[in-house]
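Hello,

I think I submitted the fructose -6-phosphate job twice by accident. Can you confirm which output corresponds to this input? Input:
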Amino acid sequence: MCGIAGYIGERNAPGILFDMLKKLEYRGYDSAGVACFSGGKVIVSRGKGKVDEVRKKSRITEIKSTVGIAHTRWATHGEPSDENSHPHSDCTGQFTVCHNGIVENYKEIRVELSNRGHKFLSQTDTEVIPHLIEELYSGDFETAFVSMLKKLKGSFALVAVDSNSPDRILVARKESPLIIGVGKGENFIASDTPAVLADTKKVIILEDMEYGIVKKDGVLIKRLDTGIPVDKEVHDIKWDVKAAEKDGYDHYMLKEIFEEPAAVKNALRGLENITATAKKLSKYERIYIVACGTASYAGQVGRYVFERYGISAEVVIASEFRYSTINTVDKKCAVIAVSQSGETADTLASVKEAKNRGAYIISVVNAVGSSLTRMTDDNIYTYSGPEIAVASTKAYVGQATTLTLLALSVAKEKGKITEAYQNEILDDLYAMPDKINSILNSREKIKKLAAEQKDCKSFFYLGRRLNYPTALEGALKLKEISYIHAEAYPGGELKHGPLALLEKGVTVIAVCPNDDLKEKMESNMQEARARKATLLRVAEDGEFTVPVCDPVLSPILYVVPLHLFAYYLSTSKGIDPDKPRNLAKSVTVE
Ligand code: F6R
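Support: Only one job matched these inputs. Its output is below.
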């Protein structure tokens, strides 16, 4: 996720563009840049750092310009650096582009263009875009832009300028958001509405496979496949800036839960890299998965998927691993470090120690360019986008998906599963975003359940095998943002102690996938019912209803209602779930 912006009008573009980027910083903040027309050329100023830092260093604010484009980055391909910052230009400096999304076929395009003499200065996927326009240009900017778009695979929201056409900015969208703020004698382009609200409340929303020509006194949108103009509605935005930053959601946490379908889709984008990494991983004798908190529960999902296919993997909390398990690590071990931020102190320390002992280190990480990614042999990115809420939600879904894909690939590599079986699971995974959406659409029912439970003092979450981590994650989320006591147990453990605490007034949440352990789970629930505890089930026919899916993928789906439940319980108690007491987003100290 990155933020892109554009301005064309009468006022001074650089200042307006930096202001717009500030409003988009929640979409990414590792580097920023602006490109503006001046003296028949396009001047680019960009660099590593947050928007304010780049603005402070930049001299572009001193030039007089009324047209420009800008970008605030959240790295996906290539670490945060001056060279990888947007905007990117072609060899001649005629075409300059800002991009949000992923160009999936950038490697092939880059090789092809390099063979034709193009020089690349960054490691980004984006840089192929201006070079492609340069390659395809024969006098008409729009024609070259459209031909370029037709060659891209993946997702994009784009703004592009041509130093020979200072009266226009070209825009396009596929799967990444882009809007145009319509002003009087000026127009604005942005990834999201908050960036334009200070100047206009009138907004055109680009749909997938549309592109447009934005001039200061007009906007023309066309279909990419036919080139036929589209009659676009101009929406009147009623949100204030604060609400708009959260896309209209009350909290970042809710917005991020609603990004869980995209988290699965984005994790699947890493499949090629996962398959390549699995080839190396499958050679190691022992696999340790090391992480903290929610990331460690995603690690547990991974462990159970490995075990399902007869491969052993051990999950160790990083703060324990570094002081104990580390004594068992040698060069026959592989360590998979799982982290959203890539900055968690205990995870980093564990990796450092394991590396010193010769282990093969892989990360499953969201933040590209984070400290973790610089300590590993191979990185697998989850591409979940920035997570702002302290309690992790979409990152968990991204991690669980990625680890499931990794375990499947290793199992395939070791001959434990067939390609046909792997493809069957993959097909179900590609269908997962729609299934998650159907749970999100039942939010009112979950909200009602949460309101009914808001005065309950104690929750027990039960799950077995693959969904024991789902129970752990559900309980942790509830604790974190509602401050209610919640514990998670494997269903079979109930009678070994915790049963003593079950009575009227206690709520048991049971995660019950439709699998071979269903009856065992049923008898665990019976134990709870007999003690008069309230019972809520996450099941195909449960109080939290979930769609049918292959049991191996159930952790990815069954956690969604539990995230929503924790969120609504928190808000029903009047707590701000984005800022839970005593907690920080990134734990960078031991
Ligand atoms: C819980 C939560 C934490 C993090 C943990 C690890 O909602 O967010 O438990 O999962 O602090 O953080 P990362 O993944 O950044 O290493």
